[in-house]
Amino acid sequence: MAPLSRVDHVIIAVKNLADAAATYRRLGFTLTPRGLHEGRGTGNHCIMFKNSYIELLGIVDDIGAKGRLAERVNARGEGGMGIAYGADDADKAAAALRTAGIAAEDPNELSRPLELDGEREMVRFRNVMMPGLTLPNVMQFVCTHLTPELTRARHEWQLHPNGATGIAEIFVATESPASRVAEQESLYGGVLTNVRITLSKRDDLKARFGKALDGAPLDGVVALSVTVNEPDATAAMLEMAKVPHNEVGDAVIVPASAAHGVALQFAED
After folding, report:
1. pLDDT in tens, 16-59
2. CA-based end-to-end distance of the chain
3. Sign of torsion, CA 174 195 93 110?
4. Could you identify which of 65, 80, 114, 235 might form a hypothetical disulfide with 59, taking C-beta atoms 3.0 to 4.6 angstroms apart as the criterion?
5. C-alpha 171, offset from chain centre
6. C-alpha distances in angstroms, 35 versus 18, 60, 184?
7. Against a cut of 0.85, is the pTM above it?
8. Pairing of strands 263-267, 220-228
9. Separation of alpha carbons 64 and 101, rounded Å
């Protein structure tokens, strides 16, 4: 049995968190309250679904920003930064990864404050990093939520004006997808229970997304497919918000240049 079975969330790195939050609200998403990474000059908003979420991870203090995020944005610009897999027990996940031949670090406990209903709460995680993985420009790790009641229990955070219900597919551009398959299969057996991960050459993804990929990094996470209840209603909402988009078949595509470095496809499940 493969050590991992599901995606917890996907990370989009942005230069300015406030700007990105405004963009994604205009795209019709409901965002969680801002979380801050104290001492790093960074923070996040999350777009929650029933069994996954999108994390907007960005800079809130240009002068005080430091660490991996600031380096990444300065070097590569905005766009997909990482994929976090879900696990119920970080220690068991780390052990299973090592059994599968994957170098897994010991679980690392992290926390960040969250202002919620006038109270200061601490959101806590235990993450397992896998620094030996070779998929270029995709940080892959395991995330275990120690305080899910602070992130997942709010049903209103899962109600999105654009009708979004979940992440269907994560598209990763890489020059040699065939050479990456074995490593990915060692992580999750090639199949995840809630989200598909597709590795393709960028030219092949261009055939699907066209110019919508302009503005995304050359490799790494470059596009997401998000399920919605009614693509026509989503398109009408985007039209009213004056968001650039194209209707391709039964799907609606927002270019990466209008979504901080990640092309977004909205389609029925």
Report:
1. 899 999 999 999 999 999 887 765 667 899 999 999 999 999 87
2. 27
3. positive
4. 65
5. 11
6. 12, 10, 31
7. yes
8. parallel
9. 39
